[in-house]
Write a structure and sequence with these properties.
- By secondary structure, the protein is an alpha+beta fold.
- The protein has four domains: about 220 residues, 4-Layer Sandwich (Glutamine Phosphoribosylpyrophosphate, subunit 1, domain 1), CATH 3.60.20; about 220 residues, 3-Layer(aba) Sandwich (Rossmann fold), CATH 3.40.50; about 100 residues, no CATH class; about 70 residues, no CATH class.
- It has 28 helices and 19 strands.
- A hairpin with a 2-residue loop joins strand 11 and strand 12.
- The longest helix is centred in the C-terminal third of the chain and has 23 residues.
Length: about 650
């Protein structure tokens, strides 16, 4: 992985080399091994390199033979070996062994359609000197980030927002519409970001910048079968073994090509099904020694280390873990927000920030992970929840069916203690709700939206007429209403929460903070497309989540891992900031003066929330998300709005 940045002046003004150097310096954590700058009149491209493929020859920015093209590229193209062979057959000659040069020649051969041939994870920019245009693209599922903005005179882009903020002409103002979306959906709907005027290129999109004009288009979409194209009787007779065998073959190959590297590859191991399958496949297709890494928690409610050790014994990997305490979470949280560059509602990225540091300290640059399996194969509790809610809504007067709600979220003790009537209300079990395209997500988004009660009167007034649901609904595919309900829920997770939170704040940003590249076999686009075609009943058989994955992987992992109920990765939230030693920044940023300065939240409401935590009266998801959301928003203001990106961002005592 790497960091990229660049600027294209719309006027015939020479590009500022020092500015691009500053932009790259802001993301040197993404690529500490080398730095390169390319400049051609009004364009300049920068690159911070994390050397993984062709350590000696893969320097960037890279030009083609006649210097008509130049690329700066962040990512990996896992099928570059096969693509290189095809290009050689077409007469192309290579000066390096890198995947970067493969992209250059692909662009020469296919132009802007080159990305359709690539299997990987990328954010890239190619300057075409002959046509005087800049081409940018982002991978299909949004594993690698790419941000851009337009000033009066230039187009500016980079892997992270802090690169853009190194440009003096880029405004650093909060977008309240984006904040409203984060406090509803957990993320801002792309291209919107938390910063007004700064955009994110959406996953599976490319863009062209020429003559001051910016064109953006989608080149790939995840599609599910419609009711019209799927005969339910035929689906019911599908051979489970055949589906399982095809899935295993695809996952095996996806893992195999993600082991291509000129440096050692490790693996994250949570002790759950997904990471265990990936680790087992990596052991199976490679004869090299495999090292695994995991997070353990001081609080036993969140700790899965016993399962992790069971898997490492079964698979025979060399294993290391890092233990996370309440104080650890509070101590590193400001640094985590420096890298997420956006408010977050849970502390879950923080332990993963610690984990990537452990990987880096062991001399590893690359790890395999199991992310993406829950979205593609139906593993999340939200899918089970929606299935039960629909079952209840079919007979709303039933006294027995609501008992099924007790099967949801067994690890949330406060929720389990509630009455059946409360649960029915909480989970939005209503016939009217079943017609909503967002039925599966209404309880989650409804709960999150309550956090907006902490907004200041001015912010509430500004957002009063806004409806983020309508904005999201306008983006849904034309065939969305014709998809199976289970597939609709999958789409919302895979296309929105996955790239804009899981792969970002919990993925790329905290891993690359310590120069660690994550590779995700479950997000190979071939696996994603195949999984979309698997009948829903094989993804969740009754209430047995990821049934087809368990079936295909039963010989690879310990039986106890396949049998154990889904336990999502979680971390202590609000309690972490008040349970241990006091941290000055928490008091400072949540003080009435600081809250008033930011203008986003109500000082009195925040004071009352803090008192609840200090006196041990804070309970439930809402209080925790509110505390983390408010504190992280205050940190975004501190890091990026009040202070210069060129100064140290972690400035608390």
């Amino acid at each position: 992985m790497c960091g990229i940045a660049g600027i294209l002046n719309f006027r015939e003004q020479a590009a500022d080399r020092q500015l691009v150097e500053d932009m790259i310096d802001a993301v040197r954590h993404r690529g500490p091994d080398a730095r390169g700058i390319y400049r051609d009149r009004n364009v300049a491209l920068g690159h911070a390199r994390l050397s993984i493929i062709d350590l000696a020859g893969g320097q960037q920015p890279m030009q083609n033979a006649d210097h008509s093209l130049c690329i700066t590229f962040n990512g990996e193209i896992f099928n570059y070996v096969e693509l290189r062979h095809e290009l050689v057959q077409k007469g192309y000659r290579f000066a390096t062994q890198s995947d970067t040069e493969v992209i250059l020649h692909l662009y020469e051969e296919y132009g802007e359609d080159c990305v359709r041939f690539m299997n990987g994870q990328w954010a890239l920019a190619i300057w075409n000197a002959n046509q005087q245009q800049l081409f940018l693209s982002r991978d299909r599922l949004g594993i690698r980030p790419l941000f851009y903005t337009r000033t009066d005179d230039a187009f500016v882009f980079g892997s992270e927002i802090k690169s853009l903020l190194a440009c003096p002409d880029v405004r650093r103002e909060i977008d309240l519409d984006a904040l409203d979306e984060i406090f509803t959906f957990w993320f801002a709907l792309p291209p919107r970001t938390i910063f007004d005027g700064i955009s994110a290129l959406p996953p599976a999109h490319s863009m062209r910048v020429k003559d001051g004009e910016i064109d953006v288009w989608r080149y790939w979409a995840l599609e599910f079968p419609t009711y019209a194209s799927s005969d339910s009787q035929n689906v019911a007779r599908e051979d489970e073994d055949e589906w399982a065998e095809q899935l295993l073959d695809l996952l095996t190959d996806a893992t195999r090509i993600r082991l291509r590297s000129d440096v050692p590859v490790g693996a994250y191991l949570s002790g759950g099904l997904d990471s265990s399958v990936v680790t087992a496949l990596a052991k199976q297709v490679s004869n090299t020694h495999l090292k695994t890494f995991s997070v353990a928690f001081e609080d036993r409610e969140f700790d899965e280390s016993s399962y992790q050790r069971e898997v490492t014994r079964f698979l025979g990997t060399e294993h290391q873990e890092i233990r996370c305490t309440y104080d650890d979470l509070a101590r590193i949280f400001p640094e985590v927000i420096k890298h997420t560059e956006t408010p977050i509602l849970r502390t879950a990225p923080a332990p993963l920030f610690m984990l990537s540091k452990l990987v880096h300290s062991n001399g590893y640059k690359v790890v395999l992970t199991g992310e993406g399996s829950d979205e593609m194969l139906g593993g999340y509790d939200i899918f089970k929840e929606a299935k039960i809610r629909r079952f209840l809504a079919a007979q709303p007067d039933s006294q027995i069916r609501p008992l099924l709600l007790k099967k949801l979220y067994p690890y949330l003790q406060n929720l389990q203690a509630q009455s059946g009537a409360y649960l029915k209300e909480f989970f939005r079990v209503s016939v009217d709700d079943t017609v909503s395209p967002f039925f599966s997500h209404l309880p989650r988004w409804g709960l999150t939206s309550k956090l907006k009660l902490f907004f200041s009167d001015a912010v509430k007034a500004e957002l009063e007429s806004r409806n983020g649901y309508k904005d999201l609904e306008s983006r849904l595919p034309v065939d969305f209403s014709q998809w199976d309900r289970f597939c609709q829920a999958q789409y919302l997770e895979a296309m929105y929460l996955l790239p804009n939170y899981i792969l970002s704040s919990q993925g790329d940003r905290v891993a690359m903070a310590h120069s660690v590249e994550v590779r995700l076999p479950f997000l190979d686009y071939r696996v994603a497309e195949f999984a979309a075609r698997i009948p829903s009943r094989l993804k969740m058989k009754v209430l047995n989540e990821k049934y087809i994955l368990k079936r295909c992987a039963r010989a690879l992992i310990p039986p106890s891992v396949a049998r154990r109920p889904k336990q999502p990765y979680r971390a202590p939230d609000g309690k972490a900031f008040f349970a241990g030693q006091p941290f000055d920044y928490v008091e400072e940023l949540l003080s009435a003066d600081s809250i008033r300065r930011g203008g986003i939240f109500n000082p009195l409401a925040v004071q009352k929330l803090c008192e609840k935590f200090k006196t041990g009266r804070a309970i439930g998801i809402k209080d925790n998300m509110a505390l983390v959301g408010i504190l992280s928003t205050q940190l975004v203001l501190h890091h990026f709005v009040y202070n210069s990106v060129r100064t140290p961002l972690y400035a608390f005592n």
